[in-house]
Design brief:
By secondary structure, the chain is an alpha+beta fold. It is 27% helix and 37% strand. It is built from five helices and eleven strands. The strands form two sheets. Strands 1-2-3-10-5-8 form a six-stranded antiparallel sheet. A hairpin with a 2-residue loop joins strand 6 and strand 7. The radius of gyration is 24 Å and the shape is globular.
Length: 181
């Protein structure tokens, strides 16, 4: 068989082999939501589950049940002076993205002031902290992966109002692999 005839014949055979797959391609991309295949989700700025976590006002946008345990993401919307003291996570990494205001962040002993558009990464087992500085409220998107930390935040938000009992806070955090320095 000459080359031209071979290519024509092969192309026809390949085309016929692919037709059923192409015809059913919608089926390939249309998978039902399941624990192993999370559903898409769109969350508007005004939406989410708002928690007051000892003064850190968090709006949870995505939690583990939304992402098959891959990630949790929330928006911190807090005033000057509010922050989290130095601590270490043993289970999750965190990413902090400042949207508005100024946030002083310490990661592994290095302190930097983040402004709108700036990002910091705090891997697990590395000490870090943050605090809103300046005169305006700050808005920061925080992501933690894998998920699970949102359960701790819910427990902390359920503590009675008023000054926090640091011993109770430390126990709750410790149960989730977080220790304060």
């Amino acid at each position: 068989m000459d080359r031209k005839k071979f290519i024509q014949t092969s192309g026809l055979g390949l085309g016929l082999a692919l037709v059923p797959g192409i015809a059913n391609s919608k089926q390939l991309f249309k998978k039902a939501a399941s624990p192993n295949n999370p559903s898409p989700k769109i969350i508007k700025d005004s939406e989410g589950d708002v928690l007051n976590v000892i003064g850190d006002i968090q709006t949870h946008k995505l939690v583990g049940s939304d992402t098959n345990g891959q990630i949790v993401e929330w928006v911190d919307n807090v005033g000057p002076g509010v922050g989290i003291p130095p601590h270490i996570h043993t289970k999750e990494d965190e990413i902090f993205r400042v949207i508005k205001g100024q946030v002083e962040i310490m990661v592994d002993g290095k302190t930097t002031v983040l402004e709108a558009g700036d990002t910091a990464f705090a891997p697990k087992n590395i000490p870090h902290s943050w605090k809103v500085v300046g005169t305006e409220k700050a808005k920061m998107i925080t992501s933690a992966f894998p998920s699970g930390i949102e359960i701790m935040f819910r427990e902390l938000a359920d503590l009675p109002p008023g000054p926090p009992d640091f011993e109770k806070v430390a126990i709750i955090c410790g149960n989730h692999g977080i220790s304060f320095l």
